Q: What sequence folds into this?
């Protein structure tokens, strides 16, 4: 095993633990040392208790039987309840708040043997208001990309091999693109949202970050993801990949990344099927905002009435329906989105996968989230998405691409991604 244990992927660490080449405590210490060395600058974490981590690691090393994630350190976005550490949502309302039970996802990870290392920083309630303190580890003057900032940055900067995030609009995939890591937003509701502070019940999706497709698949195993139908993909040669040709307004970095990826896929034997998806996305214009703001109105009503002096103005606006969205508009959004889901599933089901953009370009300066325009409709469609790093832009910052497909094709998509990633991710190819 390498001296820099913290730089290994979760899949590599899992192999080393099974073979006895390394212990959970050694992994934990390597991650904690990296955090101590870097987090004053990156600021990915809202809570880490090193002594508790080492105690937990030692207990895991004693276990005779081991789960699929045994000993793998995990960062947990600070909107997931954790019984043994604070869950504060980056909100003054929840400062020092300690739930007495884990979120269902965290419980599942513990049952699989994961080492819960700490809580990662997020925007207030993973939405707006107070910004995360986190910075992009590739350039500290740039954003890491939104509410899952701490989770994406912690994986990118080798603090931890895996981390949980969530996505309401683009807060799994966009940070992955900006930070140059792999991420999976599974099919909506394929993973339990119990114990997560939700903004939108029909948008919010639990997902995760890793440093390889194999890492993403390890977590999918723990959550027992299951497809609606068996996938027929075997090899990239002859595979049909739909290239999203919708005319988005994006920076040359993203446009070039998609064009170059298409060329590399074709050189590897794939069949690139270029198609404008405006027939799906045009009817969905404005629907994400209606759903997210209307459901946010419901989600924050209690806090607005109980803590108006502590709740950020933007959440008060949502609770008071300043946007003026009617229930009739919400019903229209629900019905139209449902129709578009069926259409997209049909189109995506005719190919092996769909390749589209993850972000408008490189991470912009500052700490703001960045634009979720390329992610939010896919979130509303409820489809699985995988970010694959696909090179660097003109400022030497990462640019990612999204592989997607029909609802409940998560396993199939992981299989396709395992073949696509070595073609798209130049770091893997080298």
A:
């Amino acid at each position: 095993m390498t001296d820099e244990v913290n730089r290994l992927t979760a899949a590599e660490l899992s192999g080393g633990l099974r073979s006895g080449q390394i212990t959970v405590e050694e992994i934990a210490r390597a991650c904690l040392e990296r955090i101590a060395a870097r987090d004053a600058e990156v600021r990915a974490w809202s809570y880490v208790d090193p002594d508790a981590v080492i105690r937990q690691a030692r207990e895991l090393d004693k276990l005779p039987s081991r789960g699929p994630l045994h000993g793998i350190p995990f960062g947990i976005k600070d909107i997931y309840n954790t019984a043994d550490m604070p869950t504060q949502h980056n909100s003054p309302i929840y400062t020092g708040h300690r739930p007495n039970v884990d979120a269902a996802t965290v419980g599942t990870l513990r049952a699989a043997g994961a080492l819960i290392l700490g809580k990662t920083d997020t925007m207030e309630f993973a939405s707006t208001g107070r910004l995360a303190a986190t910075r992009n580890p590739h350039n500290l003057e740039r954003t890491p990309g939104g509410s899952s900032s701490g989770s994406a940055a912690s994986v990118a900067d080798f603090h931890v091999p895996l981390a949980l995030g969530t996505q309401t609009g683009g807060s799994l995939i966009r940070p992955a693109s900006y930070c140059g890591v792999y991420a999976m937003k599974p099919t909506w509701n394929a993973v339990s949202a119990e114990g997560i502070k939700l903004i939108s019940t029909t948008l919010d999706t639990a997902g995760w970050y890793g440093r390889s497709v194999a890492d993403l698949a390890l977590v999918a195993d723990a959550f027992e993801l299951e497809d609606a139908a068996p996938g027929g993909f075997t090899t990239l040669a002859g595979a049909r990949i739909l290239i999203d040709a919708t005319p988005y307004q994006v920076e040359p970095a993203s446009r070039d990344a998609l064009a170059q990826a298409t060329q590399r896929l074709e050189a590897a034997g794939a069949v690139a099927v270029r198609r404008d998806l405006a027939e799906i996305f045009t009817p969905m214009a404005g629907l994400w905002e209606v759903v997210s703001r209307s459901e946010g109105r419901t989600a924050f009503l209690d806090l607005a009435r109980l803590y108006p002096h502590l709740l950020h103005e933007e959440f008060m606006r949502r609770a008071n329906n300043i946007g003026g969205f009617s229930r009739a508009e919400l019903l229209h959004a629900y019905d139209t989105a449902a129709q578009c889901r069926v259409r997209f599933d049909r189109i995506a089901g005719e190919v092996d996968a769909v390749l589209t953009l993850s972000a408008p370009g490189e991470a912009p300066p500052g700490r703001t989230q960045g634009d979720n325009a390329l992610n939010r409709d896919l979130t509303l469609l409820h489809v699985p998405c995988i970010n694959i790093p696909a090179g660097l832009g003109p400022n030497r910052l990462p640019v990612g691409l999204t592989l997607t497909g029909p609802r409940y094709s998560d396993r199939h998509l992981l299989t396709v991604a395992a073949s696509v990633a070595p073609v798209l991710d130049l770091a893997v190819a080298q």
